[in-house]
């Protein structure tokens, strides 16, 4: 049940981010919705599930757009894994944890992406990339994360309640 | 799940090794995508077409509602423009005929008219801030293969970077690791036109590795060079807007592409194969 729902969400996000998201780009900068969904999920569930989801989401992106398969998958896998770790016991209907985590995760993810895809190819103008691509992306993600986290929170709650009820029947 | 949690470290390590394996396997220079990747791409590209169509439908409705008031004024204006363009068209047809005759004399016409081309619509774009790659709705069943030249109104737009059955991914000139061997039209000075992520947000390109004795000036038109391994020679790329020198003394030029990448919605792919392989002993 949970796997099916989140597969659909990941696919939906892939389609939306490659087609519609360009219409809401501000100054050429788009939010990275995949990352927000991934971090929200990892916060609500745990690190291992975050890692699995990150790997799958990254793999889809790699298969379609990537030159080499595996780079985004690995980065997303680690993002999901580490996002699920620190806030094990936070109040899940509070926004502070997701906001902090999305900011840190986006920064870390985009920075590593930059290192692997650009810095190693000799694009050393770090400050400029930081100002024009990474930080605006983080800011946009922060705004969107409030809505996306809420949506994932509600969806996950519904699934949990359903599973609970089914378990009740079994007993 | 219990099992995975118990062996968390090994699980993560396993996924990491799997990723590295995939990277090593698909990162080879002569890698061609296999059945699995093509079929996944087939499904995904159809989904993208669906989403793009839904998006366009809404965009059209929205546009219509917003513009309802201006329609009459617009109609009058367009009518005037049609008249004006009709006159222009007649003149251009005459010029084209004249041009054809002259080109035939110079034996250029035959050379260019022989290109087989396929038109395609842009369906989707890469969903992050680092890349400008986009997907088109034609693939290997329309004879498109990797490294074919992609044209757009104005000139060269990029090259095909990967192909599925019914879709292809295009790497535009703006993309950070795109590079085209180029030369000035006026003087033939050689260089390499590359994408640069700092310039691409302004829609500009950078020409590097310029010949030390190349005579280039601001306003010069840049075209694809004879030395290019994949692009047919003589396709327009753009014009120089700025010349400079790096700290190391290398000359560079900022090039404004003649294709308007912001407004791009359809492209033309040259399906003739210009790629030649450097044979190494």
Can you describe what's shown?
The complex is a heterodimer of chains A (171) and B (281). Chain A is mostly helical. Chain A contains six helices and no strands. In chain A, helix 2 runs antiparallel to helix 3 (47-65), helix 2 runs parallel beside helix 4 (71-83) and helix 2 crosses helix 5. Helix content of chain A is 75%, strand content 0%. Chain B has six helices and twelve strands. In chain B, strand 10 (236-245) and strand 11 (251-257) form a beta hairpin. The radius of gyration of chain B is 23 Å and the shape is globular. Chains A and B meet through helix 1, helix 3, helix 4, helix 5 and helix 6 of A and helix 2, helix 3 and strand 1 of B.
Topology:
The complex is a heterodimer of chains A (171) and B (281).
Chain A: H1 2-19, H2 33-44, H3 47-65, H4 71-83, H5 96-117, H6 126-170
Helix pairs in contact in A: 1-3, 2-3, 2-4, 2-5, 2-6, 3-4, 4-5, 5-6
Chain B: H1 2-6, H2 8-26, H3 35-67, H4 71-106, H5 109-113, E1 117-125, E2 134-136, E3 149-152, E4 155-163, E5 168-172, E6 179-184, E7 190-194, H6 197-200, E8 205-208, E9 221-224, E10 236-245, E11 251-257, E12 266-270
Antiparallel strand pairs in B: 1-2, 1-12, 2-5, 3-4, 3-12, 4-5, 6-7, 6-9, 7-8, 8-11, 9-10, 10-11
């Amino acid at each position: 049940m949970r796997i099916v729902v989140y597969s659909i969400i990941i696919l939906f996000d892939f389609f939306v981010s490659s087609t519609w998201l360009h219409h809401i780009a501000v100054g050429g900068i788009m939010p990275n919705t995949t990352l927000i969904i991934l971090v929200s999920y990892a916060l609500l569930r745990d690190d291992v599930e975050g890692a699995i989801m990150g790997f799958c989401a990254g793999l889809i992106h790699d298969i379609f757009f990537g030159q080499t398969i595996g780079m985004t998958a690995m980065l997303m896998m680690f993002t999901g894994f580490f996002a699920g770790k620190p806030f094990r016991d936070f109040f899940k209907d509070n926004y502070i944890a997701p906001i902090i985590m999305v900011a840190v995760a986006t920064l870390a993810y985009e920075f590593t992406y930059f290192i692997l895809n650009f810095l190693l190819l000799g694009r050393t103008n770090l400050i400029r990339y930081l100002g024009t691509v990474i930080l605006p992306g983080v800011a946009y993600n922060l705004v969107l994360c409030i809505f996306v986290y809420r949506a994932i929170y509600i969806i996950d709650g519904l699934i949990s309640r359903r599973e609970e009820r089914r378990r009740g029947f079994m007993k | 799940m219990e099992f995975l949690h118990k062996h968390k470290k090994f699980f993560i390590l396993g996924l990491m090794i799997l990723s590295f394996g995939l990277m090593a396997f698909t990162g080879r220079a002569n890698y061609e995508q296999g059945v699995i990747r093509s079929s996944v791409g087939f499904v995904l590209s159809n989904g993208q077409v669906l989403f793009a169509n839904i998006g366009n439908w809404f965009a059209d409705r929205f546009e219509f509602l917003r513009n309802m008031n201006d329609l009459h004024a617009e109609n009058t204006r367009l009518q005037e423009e049609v008249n004006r363009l009709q006159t222009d068209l007649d003149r251009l047809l005459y010029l084209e005929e004249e041009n054809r005759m002259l080109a035939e004399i110079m034996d250029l016409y035959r050379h260019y008219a022989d290109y087989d081309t396929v038109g395609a619509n842009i369906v989707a774009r890469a969903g992050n801030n680092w890349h400008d790659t986009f997907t088109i709705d034609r693939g290997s069943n329309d004879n498109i293969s990797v490294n074919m030249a992609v044209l757009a109104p104005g000139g060269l737009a990029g090259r095909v970077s990967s192909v599925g059955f019914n879709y292809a991914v295009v790497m535009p000139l703006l993309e950070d690791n795109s590079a085209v061997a180029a030369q000035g039209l006026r003087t033939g000075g050689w260089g390499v036109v590359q994408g640069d992520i700092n310039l691409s947000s302004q829609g500009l390109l950078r020409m590097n590795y310029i010949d030390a004795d190349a005579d280039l000036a601001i306003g010069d038109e840049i075209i694809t060079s004879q030395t290019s391994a994949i692009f047919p020679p003589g396709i327009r790329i753009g014009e120089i807007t700025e010349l400079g020198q790096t700290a190391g003394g290398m000359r560079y030029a900022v090039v404004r592409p003649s294709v308007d990448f912001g407004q791009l919605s359809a492209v033309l792919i040259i399906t003739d194969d210009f790629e030649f392989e450097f044979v190494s002993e």
